[in-house]
Amino acid sequence: MAPPRARVMAALRGEEGRGRAAPSPRAAGRRREEKGAASAAAGRARAESGGAAGPGAAMEVSPIVTSKQREEVVHGVPTEVVCTAFSNSVLVVVTQYGKMGTIVYVDPNTVGNNVGRPSLTTKVLLGKDEPLVHVCAKNLVAFVSQEAGNKPVLLAMALKDKTMEGIQALREVIRSCQVW
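Given the sequence above, the corresponding structure tokens read:
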């Protein structure tokens, strides 16, 4: 009969009552190492042969989302811009504080008389809901939505310089991060 600890280990592995003696801890460790080495070798072979698709099959790797980041000094204020394109929308982060700040959803409405150029609806999701926030949001990312095929834009902005000149300069930095 096996020692009590070996019986407990065998019971945990489901080997109790099968008429087999429980392996020693050293043998069990060797078996785990052998399985690990075999698994690693199989993984290397799969990678060399082109992955799970089979030998010789080439897989193209494309990013799930495309993103660009830019840091620039705009009117004497260090500014970071990150633009990320998703399949159904675009995320634009513009910060002069190093924080995301107010988050605004900018949605193009194609319903209406002016079919060529949709009107934009803005909704503050997080942060202060002030008229200046809506004006800045529309001026910063209206072209993003239009150039991206009228996709909605999620804008996170934390701005020190909210002058019209500052917004125009920020718009050019956003344009330089074009991913849409």
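The radius of gyration is 29 Å. Try to locate this feature in the token string yourself.
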